[in-house]
Amino acid sequence: MEPLLDPLGDRIIKSVPPPPHRPLSSEHIFAPPGTDFSRPDAPLLVDWKVIMKNFQKNGRMTKEAAVRLLKMTLDTFKKEENIVKVPDPVVFVGDIHGQFFDLVKMLDLVGKIGDLNFVFLGDYVDRGMFSFEVVATLYALKLCYPHKITLLRGNHECRQMTENFNFLIEMEEKFDNEVYELMMETFDALPLAALVDNKILAVHGGISPELQSMQAINRLDRFKEIPRVGLFTDLMWSDPVENETGFLDELFSKNSKRSCSFLFGNQAANNFLELNNLLCVVRAHEVQMNGYKLHQWNGPAEFPSVITIFSAPNYCDVYNNKAAVLRFENNQIKIQQYNYTQHPFVLPDNMDVFSWSLPFVSEKVVEILFNVLMKGARTHGIEVKDVLDHEGEFELKPNNGLFKVDVMKQKMGFIGKLMKMQSNLRENRELFMQLRGMCPDKKIPKGLLLATTMEIKDALEHFRKAKDMDQVNERRPN
């Protein structure tokens, strides 16, 4: 695709290449009708490399191409069982969370696509700003290598989570609600687990009190929204206990951190593995500082009963964690770590530059209005400092001969306060956006628009501490 034209040569940051001029259409990415795919030199069904390179340049995709890609992938998912059987060697990939440029780096690191089996453990969307790019790339790979690429469902692949986080906003900005709903249908069709070489169970979250055999998973109706309770829920939401020994007073305990599902420990894991003649459970679902965690509850000499893999480095652009993928071959595991890749700057909530500029414009409009009113106010002996330094409301006294002066002061006081709020909003724009994102109702706390920068930073730090204490973002929304 040809880049966006710059006929005047006035692009400010010339080191950053311009994005593609037009979005990718079906003609660019799908094989022509009537293609004989049995020929050795036949093209792939979908040109995933063109898709990935286009997204690397900040390119877009037409709605028609996106819908076609989603419908084709949906048909492929529908043919798969709840548990997909995968031979080794296999690469396990954990949470990606919309970090497209880190996904590209990972694919470059692990080896030639098509030579390896991949099991992606879910949570492709939310948090990051490039969720559609992640999903479209993975879906294209799935269509090209349906028996080499296995995509499992994570707890974020549902309507409840994508509406509470940022994926819905992203899809409405890049496409519309129709494409979003079709995307949700593909999420409903994602398989729930993978069985690797009949030795490893791969799921997003973990095991369940209701999971005694593989048949229990295959009996589930997966083509729906993730329920509140039950085996389906636990496969998406459960966690291993955090202590190093894996000790729990009971086999499963309430998972208060998630507000749903269970915690499981060493005894529950060992019982499940022994009953099903398995070696290990590989799962994702939890950020890890090093990108992985080996839950060696049976001792360092034994194969880990549970392994957690997390593949989103510098999670949410703040964690500064490493990412990792796990390679399993001949009963041996190899872990490959990698750091984050710089990605293009995106305004919060995919906001456009005009919306972002409104506080700057409105501040100047209010300033003009203030100066116009002050010209008339001075004829009544009202000075700027009398208005801006005044705390509270001006008292209006109808019987007072200075009633008009009091009314003028009241108006000027309101405009002055509005000026301060607009100036504060402009100067502390990014802090307010972070605070708004942390509030459950997406509104800035009352009174903060008139606060100082230090008070705003203190409020932001308070929110961060509260968020760490109660793990709000790790809980399932009501």
UniProtKB/TrEMBL annotation:
InterPro entries attached here?
A: Calcineurin-like_PHP, Metallo-depent_PP-like, PP2B, Ser/Thr-sp_prot-phosphatase
Show the segment(s) annotated as Disordered.
1-25
Q: Which UniProt keywords apply?
A: Hydrolase
Molecular function GO terms recorded = calmodulin-dependent protein phosphatase activity
List the catalytic activities from the record: O-phospho-L-threonyl-[protein] + H2O = L-threonyl-[protein] + phosphate
Coiled coil regions in record:
none
Q: Which terms does the UniProt entry file under GO BP?
A: calcineurin-mediated signaling
Which residues belong to any copy of the Serine/threonine specific protein phosphatases domain?
Answer: 152-157
Give the EC number(s) listed in the UniProt record.
Answer: 3.1.3.16
Question: What family does the entry list?
Answer: Belongs to the PPP phosphatase family.
Q: What is this protein called?
A: Serine/threonine-protein phosphatase
> What organism does the UniProt record list as the source?
Halteria grandinella
